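Run: sequence + zinc ion -> complex structure.
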Amino acid sequence: MADAISPELDRLIAGYRRFREQDWTPKLARWRELREGQSPQVMVIACSDSRVDPAQVFDTDPGEMFVVRNVAAMVPPFETTPGRHGVSAALEFAVQVLKIKEVIVLGHGMCGGCKAALDQSLQGTEPGEGGFIADWIALLDDARGPVVAQYGTTGRDAERAMEQAGVRTSLANLRTFPYVAQKEAAGQLRLTGAFFAISDGLLHVLDETTGTFNAIV
Ligand SMILES: [Zn+2]
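>> structure
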């Protein structure tokens, strides 16, 4: 059976062994507590990008954050059309069942999903050939217009503007969920936009009154 383990899986298993030694055994009491249930206070919506792991960026412990990751850290609008609404299901569970207090949308620099939204390189492709991605990042179409008008469709300035517009789009879409808007208005839920710049490792938080992302130093 050893032959059936790929080098990639083998590397993960080595990591798993380190986890058992360094995180599981020393923190057994905490893991026992978590066995009874989870009560995270924060939900993070982040990109699937391998360089932006919310648990690493925020240095959190198991049980602290409820996380959804997808291409470009998108939240679709409240939709009741047929389909598999994975993000909406996770959001519903986090806000309505777990009663988390804060939702953070975490965009990031060098985002391939946002870049494809910007240059529309996957438009018109078939499912399996880029079509699913194109369809998903069409969520950014409305935000794209002003970005292109100001910065064009290529270059880091345009890409960064698109990445940050994506965070604003996800925040706006979150507010189309009636229970989210209601809880935010009642002061029971906070929504925050954030941006992790991969090139310098700096976290930026969106100030919605000024519209700017400010670096946390
Ligand atoms: Zn990304």
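>> summary
The beta strands are 42-47, 65-70, 102-108, 190-197, 202-207, 212-215. Residues 156-174 form the longest helix (19 residues).
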